[in-house]
Predict the structure.
Amino acid sequence: MAAALRPAILRHLRIPAQAQSLSVDQSAPFLSSVMNRIRSMSSHDEHLTHEEVVDRVLDVVKSYPKVDPSKVTPQVHFQKDLGLDSLDTVEIVMALEEEFKLEIPDKEADKIDSCPLAIEYISNHPMAA
Amino acid sequence: MAFTMRAVKVPPSSASLEEARHRVFDFFKLACRSLPKVMDIYNLDDVVTISQLRSSISAQIRKNAHITNPKVIDMLLLKGEEELSNIVEHAKQRHHIIGQYVVEQSGPHGEGSTKDPSTSQFLNNFYTSNYF
């Protein structure tokens, strides 16, 4: 219920970007373009883009000490392609949890055993940061 | 003084190796999730990163990876949980953590980083067994 109230309240509080630019336009066109870029009360800009998720996941996997960075692609399977064992897989999932500030429940974490699954899970997670 | 008494549970007895394996992974995840708090308590930010600590925890778990008896695994998990709770409730001190989990672990008679690396081959053989 609070989730439904939130957009209604925000709509009230949200400063319409158009009105702002009109007022500042005559004096400082540079300033207005800067202010249009900073949407201070918008809650829609925090979603991660897919490329960003892929890059960060690959960085986490490459910086794992037992992994050869040249073999890491977005399609690798941790145990089959990279030669890791199950404990290493759990450790990589924990490293991903730390990187994206998530907490993945056990049932889901057990299913993540390759890069594409990890990327898909994180992209679909609403709280990934 | 944050002394958190862990609820005294019935000691776990795993029915199978698979269940013991699950317990090991659960313990490992619990330990990893408490790492930020450990870094904060003991001020380890200059000494080590969270991923290095994670690797040292997994290395210690891996040392016992060859064990197949589920009851032995349960006993080792119990010791691990006790160690984790000691660390998290600040019952240890910074030099304990650094010495046990950060420094490269050496063999039982100190061929590691702190000792002189030029100890003789004779002595190394002597330490390991009677027959050489």
In short: Helices of chain B lie at 17-33, 35-42, 50-63, 70-88, 94-102, 121-128. The radius of gyration of chain B is 18 Å.
